[in-house]
Each structure stands twice: as C-alpha cells, then as structure tokens.
Amino acid sequence: MKFLWSVSLFLFLVFIGCKTKSPTTSQKPETPVYDSLTINVYWKKGYSDSSFKFYTKAVIYGKEIKGILFVKKISEKLYKTTFLAQGALKLFDMDLLPDTFIVHERAKQIDKPIVLKTIADDLKLLTFGAHKSYLPNSILKEPNQTVIRAPYNKTSVFYIFNVENQLKELITISPNGSRNVSAILSNYQNGIPENINLKHHHFKLKIDLTLAKE
After folding, report:
1. CA 169 to chain centre
2. 11, 110, 160, 214 from 82: Cα distances, Å
3. Do 74 and 67 touch, CB atoms closer than 8 A?
4. CB atoms within 10 A of CB 204
5. Residue among 155, 150, 120 nearest 137 (CA)
6. Are 67 and 83 in contact (CB under 8 A)?
7. Alpha-carbon distance 212 to 86, whole Å?
8. Taken in order 14, 18, 19, 21, is the CA torsion positive or negative?
9. Among the ranges given (13-27, 54-68, 121-135, 162-176), the one the predictor scored with the smallest mean pLDDT
10. CA 75, 81, 82 angle in degrees (round to 5)?
11. Which pLDDT score, from 0 to 100, does residue 213 have?
C-alpha cells in the first residue's frame, strides 16, 4: 500500500510539473513583402522608336551564323521579330506573345520545334523579360550591385543591377537550381545597352547582339 501511495504521489507531481510548464510555440520567420518593380531596357516610357535592329552573331557547337535581328514592339503583349542571315536569307519571322509564339516563316535549317522554341524563349527573355512589372521574391543590396530574384517559368530569374541602376545581367535558373541562360548587357549609351551577350549553360549556344546605330 505504501508503494502504491508513493507511485501516486510521483505521478501527481509529474502532472503538476507538466501543467505549470510554459507552452512553447515555434515562430516562423516572416517573409518580406516587396512592392512591384518595373524595368524597361529598350522600350522606355517617352521613347518614340518602337523598333530596334541588332547586328547578330550566333555560335552553336562551333557553327557561326551572322545576320541582322529586327525587333518591333507592337503592344505590351506582342513583339514582332525577324532575322535576316548573311546572303539575305530570312532565317525566321516570328511573333512573340507572353505565353506562346507564332512562326510565320522559317528556313529549313531551323525547322525543328525545339530549335524554334529555344529561339523564342531567348527573344522573350530580352523582350518580355526585360520590359515588365514583377513582384520580387528577394532583394539583395550589395556595395556595387543589387540582385533581385523574381518568378520565371516556374523557377526564377535573377536581375542584377549596377550602382547606376542599369540592368547588367539576367540569369534564368533551371528546375534543378543550376544556371540555364544568362544575358550580359553592357556599353550603355543614352540609357540603353548597345551590347547583349547571351549564353546557354546546358548546351553550346552563344548569341552576341550589337545595337545598330542609324
């Protein structure tokens, strides 16, 4: 009986201790909320010209293609693009829309769905991707640059700005977290970059664009 009384007293004390213990709650860190940001690289507000011409050199697995790329902004949801290769060969004539693209003409050398989609995605990165309003996922301010991460095609795109708030690089990320495509923008004149160097990191494709001055 004495043994049972001792056990009961022990359980009573344990119960009291559990009741008086302060409850602990896990606190999740608050996710920062950012305001919408807008970038305009070529088609700036108040800029009258809606079309641009770029001298273009593309190198894919050692093969080089040179020509002229024409890009015309029709509206916020439509860009028209045409590429004339050396020798006046029209490599493609394509409309870009936010979620798709329409090919009007293409040369037999690039008449493959994966090739046309790659071209469209690259051009959309430099049109819709560089002229948009977006809600950032994160903003990292460093002494010489600001890095902004935003949603892009179910993954992310990183916008890197210099100290003068000029966009100097875009980097898209693959679903596995590695770099997919990067574009370096340089040689700013009158507020717009005259050179773009685009590189794919999963296969050997590089595109160099130089803004044509009239």
Report:
1. 10
2. 83, 14, 28, 18
3. no
4. 12
5. 150
6. yes
7. 16
8. positive
9. 13-27
10. 150
11. 82
Report residue 14's pLDDT band, with 50, 70 and 90 as the boundaries: very low
Q: Is the pLDDT of residue 17 over 70?
A: no
The residue assigned the tokens 């305001």 is: 35
**pLDDT tens digits, residue range 18-69?**
444 444 545 555 667 788 889 999 988 755 568 999 999 999 888 899 999 9
DSSP designation for 177:
S
Residue type, 197: N
* CA–CA separation, 9 and 97 (whole Å): 76
pLDDT band, very low/low/confident/very high, at 116 (cuts 50, 70, 90): very high
Q: Kindly report the average pLDDT of the chain as a whole number.
A: 85
Give the tokens for residue 75: 């509206």
Contact 51, 71 (CB under 8 A): yes
Please tell me whether residue 95 adopts helix, strand or coil conformation. strand
List the one residue out of 97, 105, 149 whose CA is nearest residue 127. Answer: 97
Torsion of CA 71, 199, 157, 213, to 10 degrees: -30
